[in-house]
Design brief:
By secondary structure, this protein is mostly helical. The chain is built from three helices and no strands. α2 runs antiparallel to α3. The longest helix is centred in the N-terminal third of the chain and has 33 residues. It is elongated. About 10% of the residues are buried. The mean pLDDT is about 95.
Length: about 80
């Protein structure tokens, strides 16, 4: 276990950030699953806007890589556009 005050604080702050990142990533994955399961184009379009924003936030905060975010958004956009 760390002895320095700064090390102890770093451990606490890192754990808090890890939990926050994990929550945001998991929430985004849940919304992506909802979007993939959507059958109505209007509903899927609205959901896509929200999901794309969530994915962008994850990339901005380095929770996922920016290329991974672009890839996810592209695939989801194709999926939404294919709906009738």
């Amino acid at each position: 276990m760390a002895n320095h005050k700064s090390s102890l604080k770093r451990i606490r702050s890192t754990e808090a950030k890890r939990l926050r990142n994990r929550y945001q990533h998991k929430t985004t994955r849940t919304f992506i699953k909802k979007l993939v399961g959507a059958t109505d184009k209007a509903e899927a379009t609205e959901l896509y806007k929200k999901v794309a924003g969530m994915i962008d936030k994850l990339a901005k905060r380095n929770i996922i890589h920016k290329n991974n975010a672009s890839n996810k958004k592209s695939k989801l956009a194709k999926l939404v556009n294919a709906l009738d």
